[in-house]
Amino acid sequence: MNLNRKIMDTLKPLGVPVAFGNYNQTANTYIVFVEYNQASRMNADDDELITKHFFQMDVFSTGNYLQLVKDVKSLMKEAGFGRMFESETYDTDMKMFRKIIRFNYENTIGEI
């Protein structure tokens, strides 16, 4: 299983559109995510044993999305992702609230 699929499956119970990279913005609430970095976490004998993946998740909504954000963080934690960063803004062009959450995930080479 790749990590993009893992994230999509993890967030599916939320009942809002979840997209990798971009979304066509037809819904009032949706989630977009990207992997913005990968780094070697553990090496032995010049071989990478564990890779650390870094994801940014953007939750967009025209209304109150506090419970959705709480549910995203809970589901991602249950799936083995660690939260690293969180920020909030309002996009005046889109007229939407935006919650930015960054997560990391470590996997053993060959696991995914």
From TrEMBL:
The name this protein goes by in its record: DUF3168 domain-containing protein
Top-rank lineage group of the source organism: Bacteria
